[in-house]
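Hey all, sorry for the wall of text incoming. These are the two entities for the joint prediction.
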Amino acid sequence: MTRLPITKTPKVYVGGAFIRSESARTFPLTDAAGNFVANIPQCSRKDLRNAVEAAAKAGPGWAKRTAYNRGQIIYRLGEMVEARRPELAAALRLGGASAAAATKEVSATIDRLIYYAGWADKYEQVLGSVNPVAAPYFNFTVSEPMGIIGLLAPPEAPLLALISLLAPAITSGNTVVALASSAQPYPAIILGEMLATSDLPSGVVNLLTGLRAELIPTFATHAHFRALGGVANKVEQTALKLGAAESVKRVKLFAAEAPINWFSSEQQNVDALRAYLEFKTVWHPIGA
Amino acid sequence: MPTLLNKKRSAPTLRRPAAPALIFGDLWNYDPAPETADPKLKSRYELFIGGKFVAPASGKYFDSINPANEQKLAEIARANAADVAAAYRAAKKAYDQTWSRLPGRERAKYLFRIARLLQDRAREFAVAETMDGGKPIKESRDFDVPMAAAHFFYHAGWADKLEYVAPGRRVASLGVVGQVIPWNFPLLMLAWKIAPALAMGNCVVIKPAETTSITALKLAEIFQDAGLPAGVVNIVTGFADTGAAVMGHPLAAKVAFTGSTEVGKIIMRSLAGTDKKMTMELGGKAANIIFDDAPLDQAVEGIINGIFFNQGHVCCAGSRLLVHEPIAAAVLAKLKQRISVLRVGDPLDKNTDIGAINSPAQLATIKRLVAVGVKEGATLYQPDCALPAKGYYFRPTIFSGVSMSHRIAREEIFGPVLSVLTFRTVDEAIEKANNTAYGLSAGVWTDKGARILKLAAELKAGVVWANTYNKFDPASPFGGYKESGFGREGGCQGLLDYCKLD
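and here's what came out:
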């Protein structure tokens, strides 16, 4: 007699807890052949607002961590992913990726985390400056995290793209609410379990699953988001930018229509960090 | 031997008699000290498109008024959408055929030339700026014009060093940039916008504010004298419809706007369906925080400069004074005495501290919000100074007893009006300072270095002035957090907003 395996109930990682949608709604996940796999939480606008609240609570503490500490925690996240490579690869294969492609994407994901972990205590020296003003003042420009960032992950490379979007945001001390690809949500469900064991404080990263069309209006208009990023098509971009205007949000979107090679080294650079930084300039007189 | 310490401090014989308060105000008549340099104004200013002064398609002109005496200074061309389109065509042609092909070192030379030619004519420009906008001549002479020249000089040197702006990346120009600027620093804002755009290799279509177009068109004369290739900078004058055409034109790869948050949001909405890059430098309601250990007299000068500089027509004006409770009464008394000796009047007079309000519309806005302040229960103080019979003037104004819920503590007044609030603890000061939708600037006055660095880190503002206020420099990035906008102007950070990275 074969043993009936225990299947996992997918839950989303919000505020450090694994939750179902408050709406109690789900949508079925099927594998590439069309077989039922599991029910994925169909998060609601209320779930999104709760996630923003969790991100707001976590924000000041995370931003105050030393850069060295943030770097170690993101490295630790890399360690957690490395240890569970087969599980993530299996999640990617559900979406139709070949074994080789899935393995490649998991490897690239880990490497991307390690890349940004190393940036944590260095980008300030690259992006900040001491400014030679023409008067007796000490004048310097430093970066600060923007706050809460809303991210929309694409279906292509659902794990690598999600990490490529959120890693630079959290490296510099922002907190994130990310919506996983509606078509490929399962890798984000598994990733949540690694976030939970990575020393990342609760609420720094909040991952939702659900329907883009339903949640984009709230991403657009929620005034606590300081910036919106990720991948969106023309119609979605217009909606997001219209909503962003109401509270002067920063919008950093990739066009869904143009193919993005997430594996390329061009998708990892210090400017991805800069996208979610504010620059503050401080003046102080020099004198006795 | 009795020492000073042993002496009774309360002994009346040791006390100096209290000095009589020195209130000048209207007690003394000052002789006028007018600046008399010739501003060399034309009676009519045309649009500057493709390197030439051209009449507007509509044939329409509007008057530019001297707000100090309500006299007409000149007629300004009113550009419509067709004129804006012609400006964009000229800019695109210049970009494709000339400017984008010039090596950086050659672009630099043009910018250096512009800086030098502006320095040569500095006094003439200062007088024109003061007549057109109403700001005191001492400010246009010592700040606006030299700083505008400095911006061209600073950015000139970047034009052939752009590989150092974004380490590890290749920077490229965007193309044609559309820019709309406000009336508070007409020439300086023009320089802030044009210099980095040109250094990076872009061409420009720019619209000055309708009340302050003259120095922009005088600068166009300098562009001609400098031999700047035709079409690299195009200046279109007019009202909001002209501005909307500049922001919305399809040839604009990027738009940069400085102005109110309200208009900034309108522009963001109108461009939501496009891929245009944007930078926004919007309003502010800055907190100027003064602690009980601050050097009081120095701080009072800084508070005065923070709010009354340029009649308070400054987006980063220190319009909310947060005073540590133990010194609140002393600071308020000093402020009242200080504003009673500010000289309000003829902007061309070298002794004038507070000039004319830029326009009747702005004067009405200031009066409306001041009336709201009184109605909401704040205590108003204005010195009893005479104002000129003609022109738009407003007395320096201090509101005490203001709370965070008052509209005068939340809304940008953009005039010489200071709202005074108090706090007890550092945390309360930070909380109150950050309790606003804006985040452009902040000031901190204290003797404690560690406290300055803590506040500098905690204040959600793009510029923090510690023991100083309203300082600017081309090398120093300027720009806001939150609803004060995004993008930076000045420094290498500012250049990044005018390029794309490959």
